[in-house]
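Researcher: Last one for today. Full complex below.
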Amino acid sequence: MSDVPNDLRYTKDHEWARLHGKVATIGITSFAVEQLGDITQVDLPKEGESIKKGAVFGSVESVKAVSDLFAPVSGTVVKVNDPLSDSPEYVNEDCYDEGWMVQVELKDANELEELMDAKAYQTYLQEQDHD
Amino acid sequence: MIETRQLIHPERPIFEHGAEGRSGASLPELDVPAIDAQKHFGKLARVTLAALPEVSEVEVTRHFTRLSRWNYAIDLGLYPLGSCTMKYNPKVNERVARMPGFAGVHPQQPESTLQGALEIMWRLERVLCELGGFRRVALQPAAGAQGELCGVMMIAAHHQSQGRAPSKVLIPDSAHGTNPASCTLSSYTTVPLKTGETGIVSVDTVAQACAENPGDIAAIMMTNPSTLGLFETDLGKIAEVVHAAGGLVYMDGANFNALLGKVRPAETGVDVMHINLHKTFTTPHGGGGPGAGVVGVGATLEPYLPTPTVEKEGDRYFLDYRRAKSIGRLRSFFGNFGMFVRAYTYMRELGGPGLTLATEMAVLNANYIRARLKDVYSLAYEAPSMHEVVFTDRKLKRETSVQTLDVAKRLMDYGYHPPTIYFPLPAVTGGAGALMIEPTETETKETLDDFCDALRAIADEAKRDAEMVKQAPHQTALGRLDETRAARQPILRWRAK
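Model: Here's the assembly. Have a good evening.
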């Protein structure tokens, strides 16, 4: 079963968000990584750009397909994990730490509360597994 | 169990063949005064010779023939590439297209000497109008994607002439990627519509999107049947909703091969639709091209057709450039004429009832595969299949460590080109891998049975010997390639060692 850390919030599209003060770090879950297979390219927004909850903010390309990244929260991008452009394998190796994607200054902290917690996400993953 | 066996030569790049000074041609002695290139062209003159291969004729012939034997083609076997429609090209098409009267014409000949070619174009347009229910069909676009662009440009021209400037186009998430690309090229933004669990676009989803963007909907682009292989049952009502919101209805007719003689799209509210001649009317595809993405329109968009159109006056055919509101010319001359000859040949060979039968066989074949495999591979959608069927690997992944990619690779050992995988996107959400299979109408029951047997055998192998399947293919000239490294560290050109 996929690794689902307790301290994170999750979307149905398999992104995670971790809050420090007003800034949320965003990445994709180990379930997403398992499904994508080897990631070959990560396209992310630039610092200063704003992203909107539920809207596409970037994409990951794996040997299988290109998949959109959906923003778990709205806000302004304050930092981008630049090393991913040369080393997309970090996402495969450690999606919750070195493979993070962007940091966003939140527009509305409540948005984070609307996301699933680890328990709810785990239940969601189990449901997905059924036909 | 059929496994492929063939004498395959390993083959180096052409640059590693040959020797300095070797050539496949002998030119006569120079019989004009030599010039000093440096003096004539200055800095533009080449100082060192281009590093082209220096090879004999026999080396070139063997090189490319050997490479061709690594390849797969529709003339070798079933090519079930869903959404791409790799369909058999009847040889009579080629025979007719090679007749000197067609193969030898030049577009700048006097019109009076091009009457036969123009007549083919005129007749082809009439058949397409009859099949699609359209008033006119533009033959110019050089491929499906350009046909889409042509359609979207006509939509934009229509809104402009009405003094409107809506900015959005609705596109279901099951669409081909070219749909949003055509919109972006025409400065529209796209609003994605979720297809949901049934795979069908619902009237409610469209109505809601229209309500959220009042006065701002330029069009909806619907593929019918969709890339999920499903018939969009609500297209008629969706068209009413979009028209009421001031938008037009574009139908991506890529999958028109499932509708011939059954549905005239224009009668379901479609204002404009492109048809890929290769997918429905057996012109070459997949490197054999070129393409032809003809575009049918109803009365609303007729004034905006690209020029020239082919018209008939008495017994005379002519090119008509008079169309005040035309979006103009899309391509040099008149489109890919050789494809028109092939498509028209196919139409005349089959006739109306034959085209209807082709559609019925395409749908029957897809559903036959569906019925034969649905207990080993999971169906992506419950709705009946049209011309193609989408499976997922949910069941396989639950029971084994084998995934879609492995199944596709292993299929090559059985002598088949793999189907499209990990597409369409709605079928791959939630981590499933998709197998999208389009057998087309020409395959026999024996071929379909062999193919289904192979896929069933692979599902069985996955349980017994997963590692072997995960290392497939074993019978091809090259085994499993390191696709990850190829994508992360691509080597895009040959370099001398």
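Chain A has one domain: 9-124. The radius of gyration of chain A is 14 Å.
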